[in-house]
Amino acid sequence: MSDDDDEDLPPPEPDERRPLTRKRLSILWRIAALVRPHTGRLVVALITLMLASGLSLVYPAAAKYAVDAGLSKQSAADLDRVVLLLCVVFVVHAVLVWVRHYSMSWLGERVVADLRALVFDRILRLPLAWFHERRTGELVGRLASDVTVVEGVVGSELSLTLRNAVQLIGGLVLLFVTSVELTLYMLAVIPPIVVGTIVFGRAIRRMSKRVQDGLATVSGHVQEALGAIQTVQAFVRERHEADRYRAGVEDAFGRSLALVKWRASFFAAATTAGYVAIAVVVWLGGRAMIRHEITPGQLTSFFLYTFIVAGALAELASLWGALQRAAGATERLYAIIDTVPAIRDPDAPVPLPAGGGAIRFEQVDFAYPARREQPVLHGFDLAVAPGEVVALVGPSGAGKTTVLQLLLRFFDVDAGRVTLEGQDVRTLGLAELRRATAMVAQEPVLFAGTLRDNIAYGKDGATDAEVERAARDANAHDFITGFPDGYRTVIGERGVKLSGGQKQRIAIARALLVDPRVLILDEATSNLDAESEAQVQEALARLMRGRTTLVVAHRLSTVRDADRIVVIHGGKVAERGRHAELMAAGGLYKRLVEHQVFVEDPAA
Hints:
Elements: H1 22-35, H2 39-56, H3 58-71, H4 76-125, H5 128-132, H6 136-178, H7 180-187, H8 190-227, H9 229-234, H10 238-290, H11 296-337, E1 359-366, E2 377-384, E3 389-393, H12 400-407, E4 415-420, E5 423-424, H13 430-435, E6 437-441, H14 451-455, H15 464-473, H16 477-481, H17 500-514, E7 518-522, H18 530-544, E8 548-552, H19 556-560, E9 564-569, E10 572-577, H20 579-585, H21 588-594
Parallel strand pairs: 3-8, 3-9, 6-7, 7-8
Antiparallel strand pairs: 1-2, 1-4, 4-5, 9-10
Helix pairs in contact: 1-11, 2-4, 2-6, 3-4, 3-11, 4-6, 4-11, 6-7, 6-8, 6-11, 7-10, 8-10, 8-11, 10-11, 15-17, 17-18
């Protein structure tokens, strides 16, 4: 594979041993860029978070006052005022927590929505070669699972991390104010916790990536099986597919369980270390109080601040693993976003000249990126005049469909060039090039919406009158109005509620509506019965009138009616001419006809 082909592929996975590389810092900065348009809400969330976390540090001080007041037998009225003030603080704290939680959750949902849109927009613009290397179901699973991980971080885990960081720092400051000696004893356990956090965090990140990969693979199995459900049931493979899915689920479960064990061990170790520190502080603090070095109230507040610090430290330890998972998920998402499409608009697109659809292939060489060692076209040369109907025929694998894909620039030629109206298609904007063409394929792709939506798919703002006119010209209006909901009929995924002939006529109506200069028919009538064939052929005749048309066909009737027949063999044009001329020449075309490569018109 050449270097150019590698442009389609995302960068390799980063070194798993690096806990936080410069690349990951860059990715975190880019996630922050998604939050930047909502800075006002972020500021509100941060202010309320700081205030709420700060207020939570007031409670140990109140406990200190209450204990010392009780032991010194001060006025009960003073104690009542402290408790009343605490109740007010509780209410204010609750309001602040609500605002903080809502604001951070809103930001999480907003970032996820923007990130999903950004990733999907990039996926839609990647070339066909990129999709040939990946399974659709895996991409769908990745888009769902990885984005959900990011949502958890931005929406909740980031907020918890900041809250615990504030409580950890504030609690430590107040501990030092209360007793430097006791605080230093307590902090002796922190370095081992930090080291453990780093070691466990790396392992959790690696295991989390394997879990996400397993889930993406399982999603790919689901997409593949459901997309071919008719074939699965026809070959009685339901049990096989169910077993394959269950095996994938069990594998993902095993990976998740291993991750859960590591996370549980990590959390348990960090928590144990924290509480060991607390036990030591209890022992040392009790001895200090016996020696009258601190008051009972101070010791009480010190214990409470210690619990706050230990709890914050334990939560930060568990959140570190979550942040590591999010870093890996975000990295994979941005690998897609950062993929530079090999097929893209030129830096300075040239406007498509006016004309009637003149096409030319000039000494074109081409091999698919995944099969560079197997050239499909070599020295291919063909000119199509405006308004001409050219039928492309040849043995299976000769490159007929490849010619159509090169014209639409789903792939770029390796050598030579393809022109439309005399302009190299690589110099044109992709949107302008493809709006000048329309394709009707053997298996037309319809979407799960209404009949009207499917007909109007290629033209924004199409009116009902335009849609109906296109449907009439495609011989589709009568069967559409036969449905109870007419043009508002929902046709199901891939148009499962329609027959083959009905799908084809909807596809023809869609092509008529966009009014293209160039029409591409890729075996558009090969799977139809006699009645559907006649209706579709009549509709195609209207669609082809006055348009340059390239036809890949196996119907002999379609080939006979073409202005010119081009026989492709060995990646080149082997013969060209009309049906009678090629039959008289006695070459490859005649042999194809005699070997029944073409199907006779069922209506004949």
